[in-house]
Design brief:
alpha+beta; six-stranded antiparallel β-sheet; 7 helices; 22% helix; 26% strand; single chain
Amino acid sequence: MSDPTSSPVTALLAPVPTEVLASLTKRDRHFANDEVITGTGTYNALASHEPGPSHDDDGPEVSAALALSREAAAPVYVVSFDWDYPRITRCRAGVVEDDDDENPRDLVRKLGLGAMLPPVLPDPRAFMFVEGATTAEIVGATGGDSAPLRETLRLESRGGGVLGWIERKSLDLIPSIVSAQLGRRVYLSLEDAESFAVLVIENGEEVGTFETPRTVFSQGSDPVDSILGETTREGILRAMGVDDSMNPQR
């Protein structure tokens, strides 16, 4: 199961019909698991949620963008959403132009493709709890001294671990990155008006889901009966260290 609040890792943005992008998923194994996303303007996207490094100029993403740009009336972009190295490569008329300095998330929104990004939450409703970790370890694992996270990722020691969240935004891939880098178990709480869920992540991979009631989050996932010894939303959030001021009632 993929995290319903996560962004793609990389994406190809092109002013071409979705059928053209879908054909790439059929004839090129590199794009076989990518998702075709329909934009609200002239641009559509081919997005990958699979972990991996930022794209490079010799990679298949840029090669595909170059091919598409030869016939496109507007630039074709390859974007990477990596926290440490966000990148935009612009291709026009079969040539790679200089990388854009714009933030990838700002670009996809401007091109009418904001639907591929996780929703902006009105309150900090997504929290992660990292067992047996220190705040310094998490800062190191996430590159927290770099610009994207320096002023946004909140970390506080809580009992046997660290509670982390980002004000008014999704945690995106951070819990998986922290779990993989530190080899620690991470609990990620997610909720909306209808459901409360906690993803259990080990070594960067989801190994189970607690949810009440069971709805979309837990489909296809191994069910977990309790989190940190608790079986209710309030008890789990309290065990993670989420206090009442951070935990608005639904």
